[in-house]
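G., before I forget:
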Amino acid sequence: KQEVTQIPAALSVPEGENLVLNCSFTDSAIYNLQWFRQDPGKGLTSLLLIQSSQREQTSGRLNASLDKSSGRSTLYIAASQPGDSATYLCAVDSGYALNFGKGTSLLVTP
Amino acid sequence: DGGITQSPKYLFRKEGQNVTLSCEQNLNHDAMYWYRQDPGQGLRLIYYSQIVNDFQKGDIAEGYSVSREKKESFPLTVTSAQKNPTAFYLCASRPYRDRSRNEQFFGPGTRLTVL
Protein backbone atom coordinates (compact mmCIF):
# COMPACT_ATOMS: atom_id res chain seq x y z
CA LYS A 1 0.00 0.00 0.00
CA GLN A 2 1.26 3.46 -0.87
CA GLU A 3 2.47 5.37 2.18
CA VAL A 4 2.88 9.15 2.04
CA THR A 5 4.91 11.06 4.63
CA GLN A 6 5.25 14.80 5.09
CA ILE A 7 8.04 16.50 6.99
CA PRO A 8 7.98 18.66 9.02
CA ALA A 9 4.58 18.28 10.69
CA ALA A 10 4.64 21.96 11.65
CA LEU A 11 6.69 24.96 10.64
CA SER A 12 6.83 28.58 11.79
CA VAL A 13 8.74 31.19 9.79
CA PRO A 14 8.93 35.00 9.71
CA GLU A 15 7.34 36.81 6.80
CA GLY A 16 9.53 37.07 3.70
CA GLU A 17 11.40 33.81 4.12
CA ASN A 18 11.64 31.21 1.39
CA LEU A 19 10.66 27.75 2.60
CA VAL A 20 10.50 24.12 1.51
CA LEU A 21 7.93 21.49 2.44
CA ASN A 22 8.80 17.84 1.91
CA CYS A 23 6.75 14.86 0.80
CA SER A 24 7.94 11.27 0.37
CA PHE A 25 6.13 8.20 -0.94
CA THR A 26 6.98 4.51 -0.90
CA ASP A 27 5.83 3.30 -4.36
CA SER A 28 7.26 5.11 -7.39
CA ALA A 29 4.56 3.77 -9.76
CA ILE A 30 2.40 6.89 -9.70
CA TYR A 31 0.18 8.70 -12.19
CA ASN A 32 0.65 12.12 -10.62
CA LEU A 33 1.24 14.01 -7.39
CA GLN A 34 -0.93 16.86 -6.17
CA TRP A 35 -0.31 19.56 -3.55
CA PHE A 36 -3.26 21.04 -1.66
CA ARG A 37 -3.82 23.83 0.82
CA GLN A 38 -6.36 23.60 3.65
CA ASP A 39 -7.47 26.50 5.83
CA PRO A 40 -9.00 25.68 9.25
CA GLY A 41 -12.51 24.25 8.93
CA LYS A 42 -12.44 24.41 5.14
CA GLY A 43 -12.13 22.04 2.22
CA LEU A 44 -8.92 21.43 0.27
CA THR A 45 -7.78 23.79 -2.48
CA SER A 46 -5.66 22.34 -5.26
CA LEU A 47 -2.37 24.21 -5.68
CA LEU A 48 -0.34 22.20 -8.18
CA LEU A 49 -0.52 18.89 -10.01
CA ILE A 50 2.67 17.27 -11.32
CA GLN A 51 2.21 14.54 -13.89
CA SER A 52 4.38 11.45 -13.56
CA SER A 53 6.38 12.48 -16.66
CA GLN A 54 7.12 15.97 -15.31
CA ARG A 55 9.88 17.15 -13.00
CA GLU A 56 8.32 20.37 -11.74
CA GLN A 57 5.38 22.76 -11.91
CA THR A 58 5.15 26.44 -11.05
CA SER A 59 2.28 28.70 -10.07
CA GLY A 60 3.11 32.20 -8.90
CA ARG A 61 5.32 31.98 -5.81
CA LEU A 62 4.89 28.21 -5.63
CA ASN A 63 7.16 25.65 -7.24
CA ALA A 64 6.73 21.91 -6.84
CA SER A 65 9.27 19.30 -7.90
CA LEU A 66 8.95 15.56 -8.38
CA ASP A 67 11.63 12.86 -8.26
CA LYS A 68 9.78 9.62 -8.88
CA SER A 69 12.79 7.36 -8.63
CA SER A 70 13.60 8.51 -5.11
CA GLY A 71 9.95 8.87 -4.10
CA ARG A 72 10.17 12.55 -3.19
CA SER A 73 8.45 15.83 -3.90
CA THR A 74 9.09 19.31 -2.54
CA LEU A 75 6.90 22.40 -2.44
CA TYR A 76 8.91 25.61 -2.50
CA ILE A 77 7.18 28.81 -1.35
CA ALA A 78 9.02 32.02 -2.19
CA ALA A 79 8.78 35.22 -0.14
CA SER A 80 6.26 33.83 2.35
CA GLN A 81 3.36 35.99 3.55
CA PRO A 82 1.03 35.71 6.57
CA GLY A 83 -1.75 34.74 4.16
CA ASP A 84 0.21 31.58 3.33
CA SER A 85 -0.52 30.27 6.83
CA ALA A 86 -2.45 27.02 6.37
CA THR A 87 -1.97 23.25 6.28
CA TYR A 88 -0.34 21.92 3.11
CA LEU A 89 -1.11 18.37 2.02
CA CYS A 90 0.62 16.17 -0.50
CA ALA A 91 -1.33 13.42 -2.29
CA VAL A 92 -0.19 10.68 -4.65
CA ASP A 93 -2.33 9.00 -7.31
CA SER A 94 -1.11 5.45 -7.68
CA GLY A 95 -4.37 3.52 -8.03
CA TYR A 96 -8.09 4.12 -7.67
CA ALA A 97 -7.83 7.17 -5.40
CA LEU A 98 -5.39 9.66 -3.92
CA ASN A 99 -3.24 8.69 -0.94
CA PHE A 100 -2.66 11.62 1.39
CA GLY A 101 0.09 12.60 3.78
CA LYS A 102 -0.89 14.05 7.16
CA GLY A 103 0.14 17.55 6.12
CA THR A 104 2.49 20.31 7.22
CA SER A 105 0.96 23.08 9.31
CA LEU A 106 2.59 26.37 8.28
CA LEU A 107 2.51 29.60 10.28
CA VAL A 108 4.00 32.74 8.75
CA THR A 109 4.44 35.48 11.33
CA PRO A 110 4.41 39.20 10.46
CA ASP B 1 -20.09 28.89 -10.87
CA GLY B 2 -18.59 25.47 -11.38
CA GLY B 3 -17.70 23.47 -8.35
CA ILE B 4 -18.64 21.02 -5.64
CA THR B 5 -21.28 21.79 -3.03
CA GLN B 6 -21.81 19.95 0.23
CA SER B 7 -24.72 20.34 2.60
CA PRO B 8 -25.31 20.88 5.37
CA LYS B 9 -22.19 22.65 6.64
CA TYR B 10 -22.87 21.44 10.19
CA LEU B 11 -24.86 18.37 11.19
CA PHE B 12 -25.77 16.98 14.57
CA ARG B 13 -26.76 13.36 15.04
CA LYS B 14 -28.34 11.60 17.98
CA GLU B 15 -27.30 8.11 18.98
CA GLY B 16 -28.95 5.46 16.79
CA GLN B 17 -29.89 7.89 14.04
CA ASN B 18 -28.99 7.64 10.35
CA VAL B 19 -28.01 10.89 8.62
CA THR B 20 -27.30 11.70 4.97
CA LEU B 21 -24.67 14.13 3.73
CA SER B 22 -25.22 15.69 0.33
CA CYS B 23 -22.56 16.18 -2.36
CA GLU B 24 -23.28 17.71 -5.78
CA GLN B 25 -20.86 18.68 -8.57
CA ASN B 26 -21.40 20.54 -11.84
CA LEU B 27 -17.91 19.93 -13.22
CA ASN B 28 -19.01 16.98 -15.37
CA HIS B 29 -16.51 14.79 -13.52
CA ASP B 30 -16.77 11.03 -13.79
CA ALA B 31 -15.34 10.04 -10.43
CA MET B 32 -16.49 11.10 -6.98
CA TYR B 33 -15.06 10.37 -3.54
CA TRP B 34 -15.90 10.61 0.15
CA TYR B 35 -13.16 11.16 2.74
CA ARG B 36 -13.20 11.43 6.48
CA GLN B 37 -10.76 13.77 8.27
CA ASP B 38 -9.88 13.42 11.95
CA PRO B 39 -7.28 15.47 13.82
CA GLY B 40 -3.83 13.94 13.45
CA GLN B 41 -4.99 11.17 11.08
CA GLY B 42 -5.10 12.83 7.70
CA LEU B 43 -7.73 12.02 5.09
CA ARG B 44 -9.11 8.49 4.90
CA LEU B 45 -11.14 7.18 1.96
CA ILE B 46 -14.66 5.96 2.76
CA TYR B 47 -16.21 5.22 -0.66
CA TYR B 48 -15.57 6.11 -4.27
CA SER B 49 -17.44 5.92 -7.56
CA GLN B 50 -15.91 6.03 -11.03
CA ILE B 51 -19.17 5.84 -13.02
CA VAL B 52 -22.90 6.14 -12.44
CA ASN B 53 -24.54 3.17 -10.70
CA ASP B 54 -21.22 1.80 -9.53
CA PHE B 55 -19.23 2.43 -6.34
CA GLN B 56 -16.50 0.76 -4.32
CA LYS B 57 -15.53 0.59 -0.65
CA GLY B 58 -12.54 2.53 0.47
CA ASP B 59 -10.37 1.94 3.51
CA ILE B 60 -12.99 2.71 6.18
CA ALA B 61 -16.41 1.87 4.65
CA GLU B 62 -17.94 0.11 7.67
CA GLY B 63 -20.98 1.97 8.99
CA TYR B 64 -21.40 4.05 5.83
CA SER B 65 -23.41 3.68 2.61
CA VAL B 66 -23.56 5.59 -0.68
CA SER B 67 -25.47 5.75 -3.94
CA ARG B 68 -24.59 7.09 -7.40
CA GLU B 69 -27.83 7.38 -9.36
CA LYS B 70 -26.78 10.56 -11.17
CA LYS B 71 -23.38 11.70 -12.40
CA GLU B 72 -23.71 14.95 -10.45
CA SER B 73 -24.64 13.50 -7.07
CA PHE B 74 -22.95 11.18 -4.56
CA PRO B 75 -24.75 11.24 -1.17
CA LEU B 76 -23.21 9.57 1.90
CA THR B 77 -25.33 8.01 4.65
CA VAL B 78 -23.79 7.61 8.07
CA THR B 79 -25.65 4.76 9.72
CA SER B 80 -26.11 3.91 13.38
CA ALA B 81 -23.54 1.13 12.85
CA GLN B 82 -20.78 3.74 12.62
CA LYS B 83 -19.58 3.87 16.23
CA ASN B 84 -17.52 7.03 16.11
CA PRO B 85 -18.95 9.27 13.39
CA THR B 86 -17.89 12.64 14.75
CA ALA B 87 -15.53 14.01 12.08
CA PHE B 88 -15.12 16.38 9.15
CA TYR B 89 -16.42 14.81 5.91
CA LEU B 90 -15.06 15.88 2.55
CA CYS B 91 -16.44 15.11 -0.89
CA ALA B 92 -14.22 15.28 -3.99
CA SER B 93 -14.44 14.71 -7.71
CA ARG B 94 -12.17 14.44 -10.72
CA PRO B 95 -12.34 13.45 -14.39
CA TYR B 96 -11.33 9.90 -15.24
CA ARG B 97 -9.81 10.04 -18.68
CA ASP B 98 -6.07 10.76 -18.87
CA ARG B 99 -4.93 9.44 -15.50
CA SER B 100 -1.81 11.60 -15.31
CA ARG B 101 -3.83 14.82 -15.69
CA ASN B 102 -6.73 14.01 -13.34
CA GLU B 103 -6.73 16.96 -10.95
CA GLN B 104 -8.96 16.37 -7.93
CA PHE B 105 -11.20 19.05 -6.46
CA PHE B 106 -12.87 19.19 -3.08
CA GLY B 107 -16.08 20.54 -1.62
CA PRO B 108 -16.19 22.76 1.49
CA GLY B 109 -16.94 19.87 3.86
CA THR B 110 -19.59 18.88 6.40
CA ARG B 111 -18.81 18.74 10.11
CA LEU B 112 -20.79 15.96 11.79
CA THR B 113 -21.14 15.85 15.55
CA VAL B 114 -22.79 13.10 17.58
CA LEU B 115 -24.77 14.37 20.55
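The interface with chain A takes residues 4, 6, 33, 40-43, 45, 48, 50, 56, 58, 88, 90, 92, 99-109, 111 of chain B (CB under 8 Å). The radius of gyration of chain B is 14 Å.

More on Monday.
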